[in-house]
Amino acid sequence: MARNPKARAVSHPPLFTTFKPAGVAATKLATITLELDEYEAIRLADYEGLEHEEAAEMMGISRSTFTRLIERARKKMALMLVEGSKVVIDGGSVHFKENVYQCKACNHRFRARIHEEEKECPLCHSSELIDFAKGFGHGSCCHHTEEEGA
């Protein structure tokens, strides 16, 4: 029997979760799911330019696990580019270190630690916010604490 995967640390939820070729109806495309940990691996290695060892440490996984993760993610991205598939970022066993919020009043986007109680827009001080992590079922249900390194 396979064991449950350990929650992998992800810096923050993605701002965008669906990508598809322009001019083609989404219903006509095959869908590839890029899991949140695969997204984080791409972000750390290819966008941030980190070495595998450093990226693995940030995610709380071994270097060999990170290497398998990034290879799987890159394969999915190659399929999307070559075959014109739709990519949806969703799923996986992850814990966000920070959340992204968007103010409904002024549309400003900002990051905050997951466990901060008082959340308001730093520009206009509105408390009417869109919570990006909740879209992934994350947030108040999370039982990680800062002491655990999450």
TrEMBL record:
Cell compartments where the protein resides: Cytoplasm, Cytoskeleton, Cilium basal body
This protein's record includes keyword Cell division: no
Family statement drawn from the similarity comment of this UniProt entry: Belongs to the UPF0251 family.
Pfam families: DUF134, Zf_2nd_IFT121
Domain IFT121-like zinc finger: 97-127
Keyword Repeat on entry: yes
Source species: Sulfurospirillum barnesii (strain ATCC 700032 / DSM 10660 / SES-3)
Name of the protein in question: UPF0251 protein Sulba_0212
MF (Gene Ontology): DNA binding
Cross-referenced InterPro entries: RNA_pol_sigma_r3/r4-like (IPR013324), UPF0251 (IPR002852), WH-like_DNA-bd_sf (IPR036388), Znf_IFT121-like (IPR056170)
Domain of life: Bacteria
Keyword annotations from UniProtKB, A to Z: Cell projection, Cilium, Cilium biogenesis/degradation, Cytoplasm, Cytoskeleton, DNA-binding, Repeat, WD repeat
Gene Ontology process terms (BP): cell projection organization
